[in-house]
Amino acid sequence: MENHDDDLKRKPLKIKDITRQIKKAVVASNLRELQKKSAEKFGKPELPRIHLDSDGTEIDDEEYFQTLEPNCELIVAFSGEQWIDPTQYLTITTHNGDEIDNNDVEKIHLKKLISLLSNNKCNMSILSEPDLELLSNLEPNSFADIIGKEFVEHLKQASSRILDEKREAFDTIELLKLIGKHQGITKQSGSNNMEHRPPFSPSSSTTSLSTMSSFSSNNNQQ
Hints:
Layout: H1 2-9, E1 11-16, E2 23-28, H2 31-41, E3 49-52, H3 62-66, E4 72-77, E5 92-93, E6 99-100, H4 102-119, H5 129-136, H6 144-147, H7 149-196, H8 202-221
InterPro entries: CIDE-N_dom (IPR003508)
Organism: Polypedilum vanderplanki
Keywords: Apoptosis
C-alpha cells in the first residue's frame, strides 16, 4: 500500500546545472530522492541543494517539495556552486549556440526591472544602486513601444531621485562614523590624561589648604 502511495506522489521534474546548459529529466516522490537522483545524473558524490529556476528559492522542505508542479524546472547546485540569475550572465547562449553581447544582456535585465516596476512601483525602493543607475540612464524612447514614453520618463526621474537619496544617506552614515571615531579618540585621549595625573596625596592637599588659610589670614590682617 505504501509503495502504491509513493508511486502516486512521484512527479516528473526538469533539473539543470547552474549554467543551465546541462538539462536532465527525473522522476521523484520526495526531496531526498530528487537529491540522490540529481547527484547520480550529474556524477557527483554529494547531495546537491535544489533551487527553483525562476527565482532561486532553495527547496529544503519536504512539504514544499510536494507542492511543486509536474515538470517544474529546477537548478541543482553542488558544493561551491550557487544559483545565478540568468540576466547577470556576461554572455547568454541561445538555443542555436549564438552568443548575445553585453548590450543585449543589459536590455534583458532592464526589461525585467521595468516589468517588476510596472506591477508595483514601490519595488523601486528595494533596487540596488547599479539597477537604479541603469534606470536613471534610460533613453526615453528605448522602451516606449512597450510601456509608453511617459512611464519611462517617470522611471528615469524617480530612479535618479532615489539613487541620489541613497548616496546622500551613505555619505551621511560615513560622516557619522568619522565623527564617532573622532569622538572615541578624543575620549580615549582624555582618559589617558586622567591616568597620567599625579595620584591624590592627603599631605599635599593639607599643605594647599594651609597655604590658602595663611594667605587669607594675611589679607585680613592687612
